[in-house]
Amino acid sequence: MDNHQGVFRRELVDVQGIPLFWSTAEQWSQVETFEARPDDLLISTYPKSGTTWTSEIVDLIYNNGDTEKCKRDVIYKRVPFMELIIPGVTNGVEQLNNMQSPRLVKTHLPVELLPSSFWKNDCKMIYMARNAKDVAVSYYYFYQMAKIHPEPGTWEEFLDKFMAGKVSFGSWYDHVKGWWEKKRDYRILYLFYEDMKEDPKGEIQKILTFLEKDLPEETVNKIIYHSSFNVMKQNPNANYTSMNKEEMDHSVSPFMRKGISGDWKNQFTVAQYERFEENYEKKMGESTLKFRSEI
Length: 295
Prior knowledge:
It contains 14 helices and 8 strands. It is an alpha/beta fold and 295 residues long. The strands form 3 sheets. A 4-stranded parallel β-sheet has the order 6-3-7-8, sandwiched between helices. The chain has a two-stranded antiparallel ribbon with strand order 1-2. This is Sulfotransferase.
């Protein structure tokens, strides 16, 4: 890829009140009219909530634990990021249109922006949610290294933006609640990052049941091993090291940084924690959705 000056570090653009990458906003009609297929599986998350992890697990399941088949390409080509359109760099819609079924589709869109064809076709969807404080920290480091985002500013500034929903894909609070409500009416398996860390076997079993698949125990154990953080961190097909330094600078912060629960304690000051908790209670207090901030 040539030098894409002018593509990176641009301000976000609102689409129906949700801040998105400028290039996605410019090509929004392509995303909005995306034609889902009935056998598509949508993997949806708010950013930095275990998207790549879930994608790798599901791709391994689709290939019956055959790790060689999962080496066929990098994760962002095996599970295209639908709404990521950057001129001259990538187009998730085109990638998906050129794929054979059954397709795995990645999105970070809140429910209200998801193309209507997914609801119309009653596609199965897996949503992975992670506690807000760990997401905020992980997102801050991701903003630093993934240059499609605007400059993050200081941690304090970024945290304010995160709490106000002024980061790409909008408010974490609205995102997790929106998908939580939607699962009452659609085929959505709602998973939690902390549960997957604590009991990968139990959570992968939930995915298998949801997908109506049955795999022998030794295959499930193999999937657990190959989708573990330490193995994926070393896997060039999963760790995004294949990306151009202009797009993602791993020397600033690796794409796969720590993959733990509770890392927020190393980042938040006491004052930030107190302010965050107060704001969190206002936004999440009424919801039946409950998170664990550590395991």
